[in-house]
Amino acid sequence: MGNLHIYDDPSWSRKYNELDRQVHGLEGAPEWNALRTMLPDIQGANILDLGCGCGWVCRWAREKGAAKVLGIDLSESMLAKAAEFPDDPAITYARRNMEEDLQLPAAEFDVEFSSLALHYLVNLPGLFDQVYRSLKPGGVFVFDVIHPIRLATENPSWAEGVHRNEWPVDAYLVEGQRSLKWLGGNVQLQHRTIAGYLMLLIGAGFMLAAIEEWGADENQSKAFPYWIESGHCPVFVHFKVVKPKS
Amino acid sequence: MGNLHIYDDPSWSRKYNELDRQVHGLEGAPEWNALRTMLPDIQGANILDLGCGCGWVCRWAREKGAAKVLGIDLSESMLAKAAEFPDDPAITYARRNMEEDLQLPAAEFDVEFSSLALHYLVNLPGLFDQVYRSLKPGGVFVFDVIHPIRLATENPSWAEGVHRNEWPVDAYLVEGQRSLKWLGGNVQLQHRTIAGYLMLLIGAGFMLAAIEEWGADENQSKAFPYWIESGHCPVFVHFKVVKPKS
Question: Do B168 and A168 touch (CB under 8 A)?
Fold first, then answer.
């Protein structure tokens, strides 16, 4: 997960911090509206955000009544940015490598969440096992990743591609490392098929509750010019899975 | 489902009957090997095949010890071809329109199966409800359809396209009617996203047990030249779902 350090590369992260989702937070992330409808009522809940960045979702969860929130990220600069927001004793931020030293307590969380972080992980099966173990029975895990249609080709180019309605799909079934050209950098990600994600989740013991292949609709494309014309070809895929009660 | 009558169009079905899967049966269908591994042990089981064609899977199920098999299809010529095989009193074939007059008994079948038929249906939610109702609790439903990546564009051309490794994806999120150029005809199909299929299944009460996005691997491409170079871009998607016991 060394690739996550790109968020700590000053010249790259300067561009990243100019994105709507960094300037405006969740209001600047057009997929958030769809993603949050997958979350259960979090009043009084204990929440874990895996790859919390500067903590937009952690703070949102507290506004919605979460009792306790733990935000995990590998990026020092992101966590430093999180620390600039007014202190909330019910939110804890911790620097952790999700593939190495996560060490979550068993049956601790009601809801676990992750946005656009898990496509960085090579050892995703290990992470899914940790999520399963650390959720209470009946607990919910909601996450999204870049849609595999967008990552499949050998040299995906996000900055150009996201504006295109037609997207060439090649090497979709060849899972593994991709080097994505984005914001002038080469971001290292793991390409997995939708079936690949689902079979890992089922293998970890989860039950699929919902899935959405997301692209910006016409109105969103108007409000977020960055996403224009992405509506016909999905950009992200959202998963909601449940740890069965018995 | 009037479009299914293309199987009863003599000039089109002459070409269809020249395909490996019609000449050689299941041995001529490169995806069958993967699909059958999704099926449970069918010894003594009561089986329904939705869109059975000339009955390859019905006869295979009897070879594997199925107690009783019902094969349903809309095509008269396919059912006539099924009747040319040696009679087996444990196999019943019936002409039915899956969208109109299926009328399946409740909790009757152990396993229901469908291969490359359900992408014809407009009223797929209605069919899934019937499958759910007619399965015994704990029963299994295995089916495959053309992968939505292959059907997404406004004018998909199967005959050309299946040979291509790179496939242009457009209008993926726009579900609905597609006219697929195949074997010199225009076959009317319904494009649904993977999430679309899954949410209909979950909505009907099913639990996802397995999913596979299938393309021919290198060896299969050698054995089945028709499928050459399809390996990197999935051709079909296979689903296995279960009706929960309680």
Answer: yes
Q: Which residue of B has its CA nearest to A193?
A: B213
Least confident of A20-24, A97-101, A164-168, B222-226: B222-226
Is this model's pTM higher than 0.90 or not?
yes
Whole-angstrom distance, CA of residue A192 vs CA of residue A129: 17
Here the tokens at position A141 are 């895990």
Nearest to B172 among A199, A211, A233 (CB): A233
pLDDT tens column, A168-185 = 888 899 999 999 888 888
Neighbours of A93 (CB within 10 A): 20
A165–chain B Cβ distance below 8 A for any pair: yes
**Could you give the 3-state DSSP secondary structure of residue B130?**
helix
> CA distances (Å), A104 to each of A52, A72, A142, B145, in order?
15, 11, 17, 40
For the segment A102-131, the average pLDDT, to the nearest whole number, is 96
Q: Report pLDDT for B229.
A: 58
Return the H-helix or E-strand segment holding B108. Answer: none
Are B231 and A173 a contacting pair at CB < 8 A?
yes
Q: Quick one: average pLDDT of B226-245?
A: 85
Residue B172, pLDDT score: 93
| Residue of chain A whose Cα is closest to the Cα of B164 | A170
| Distance from the A32 Cα atom to the nearest Cα atom in chain B, whole angstroms | 18
**Angle between the N-to-C axes of helices A194-204 and A124-134, in degrees from 0 to 180, rounded to the nearest 10:** 40
